[in-house]
Amino acid sequence: MWYQEIGLKYPIFQGAMSWVTTPRFVAAVSNAGGLGILASGGRTAAKLREMIRQTRKLTDQPFGVNVVLFEKQAAALCQVICEEKVAVITTGAGTPKPYIEQLKRARVKIYPVVPNLKIAYKMQKLAVDGLVVEGMEAGGHIGTETLLTLLPQVTAHTKLPVVAAGGIYDHNSIEAVKCLGAQGVQAGTIFLAAEECEISAKYKELLVAASNPGTTIKKSEAGIFARVLNLGTANRALSLHAAVNEGNTIIGAFMAGQVADRIKRIESLAAIFRRLI
User: Fold this and answer.
1) How far is CA 40 from the centre of its chain?
2) How many CA atoms within 13 Å lie on the side-chain side of 1?
């Protein structure tokens, strides 16, 4: 199986979330049998190297790194990923084409995140190992297509392993996307509600309190759209860091997917994995 080639027990990726997916948390996810993924957004190459080495001290299981390719330091981050022999890279907001040969030489598995069919077509022409197909149900920066409509279009036109992202909550979610051709899932929001997740208590409180419609789409000052918890007009949703570390409900961008509406309690990672498996 494709995920066993990576060294995973389960075909479950933990979505990378900047400032959220700390080395301790990523290691905990990998130790539970999934693929923990560090987020490199806003990090220098030196900081990423430090995070990778911290994670490796806490787990002997494979883990990954996500790279936002439009960031200026993307080349330096990819170099660190290769030097540190990370198992998997997931990419977004750009093409990994300039780094494919380098990553392949280092035996890093490459899984671009694709928000629409056009980008999926482009990615599968490259020497990537699989695709993460993300619907607009997901939290954070999103596209315009729902997973239900996008996923079967992609799986009909590729033989690559496809990992479905957006709205994943439990085993029924996994079975549903399997019916549409997915061979694994990526989840983010449900992991925010893990006891082991090192975000502010306020973030977790707001997540549990979310009820339909618990999320909304807001545009940052930079003009980038993201799905966040629906905290009303007083919340400007400008800074993820302020949400994660301070629980600031005025400027904090409390990113979360629509599946937040189903989260009613904070649970251990073990309990979350039991629900998924």
Assistant:
1) 11
2) 11
Contact between 218 and 228 under an 8 Å Cβ cutoff? The reply is yes
Residues 164 and 250: their CA atoms lie apart, in Å, by 32
Cα–Cα distance, 244 to 222 (Å, whole number): 19
Single-letter residue type at 148: L
Distance CA 38, CA 138 (A): 18
Q: Over its length of 277 residues, how does the chain's per-residue pLDDT go in tens digits?
A: 899 999 999 999 999 998 999 999 999 999 999 999 999 988 999 999 999 999 999 999 999 999 999 888 999 999 999 999 999 999 998 899 999 999 999 999 999 999 999 999 999 999 999 999 999 999 999 999 999 999 999 999 999 999 999 999 999 999 999 999 999 999 999 999 999 999 999 999 999 999 999 999 998 666 778 999 999 988 888 898 999 999 999 999 999 999 999 999 999 999 999 999 9
Q: How far apart are the first and last CA of the chain?
A: 17
- Cα separation, 238 vs 218, in Å, equals 9
